[in-house]
Amino acid sequence: MLPSTSIIALTKFFPLAFCSDILRDLTSSELQSPFQDPGSEDAMPQRLSGGCQCGALRYQLGRLPKRSCICHCRMCQKASGQPFMAFVTFDENDLRWTRGAPAIFKSSSLAERGYCRDCGTPLFFKFEGQEISVTTGSLDDPSAAPPTVQYGAESEIPWCGTLRTLPRIRTEEDFGPELLVRFRSYQHPDHDTIEQR
Ligand SMILES: [Zn+2]
Ligand SMILES: [Zn+2]
Fold first, then answer.
1. What are the structural domains, with CATH classification, of the chain?
2. Helix (H, G, I), strand (E, B) or coil at 53
3. Distance from residue 64's CA to the centre of ligand 1 (Å)
4. If both were cysteines, with which of 22, 68, 94, 113 could 62 make a disulfide (CB 3.0 to 4.6 Å apart)?
């Protein structure tokens, strides 16, 4: 384990070259994860599942997650097209693809990212080693694993801190009755199905 001063030095030298998940491996044993104890009242369901937006890819997770995080690093911003990404981390052996196989982009010499080649949904980040992190939004229940740490702090977009102060509008309110009547979702439902749709 590197001392924390070494970790700070790494962030100064490699702020953009590596996804900050490199730091996850350096600090993982220091994190107090609420997910490690299956017997606690806060324990999550034993089996989580998820998939992409079009339903071509589905996965199941066999055990409790090891961690849940947000990552603000520049690679996660680019990979998602969003201000930050959220991940839930598992042992790679606990992830099983039950439909389809993801396309993979090797985003650095140390990591790769999986996505659906049909609809583009980002599905996982995998740093070298035995861990794999699925995107929190691709889980059938994204609320199941609340994040406990934020990575990539050096690239956090400043306005992220003000999000809670913005006006809040529900989708039905935003659409209004006329659009709601015409709206049809082509998104795969949040559970396994026999057919893709
Ligand atoms: Zn898809
Ligand atoms: Zn990242």
1. 11-27+46-182 (3.90.1590.10)
2. coil
3. 25
4. 94
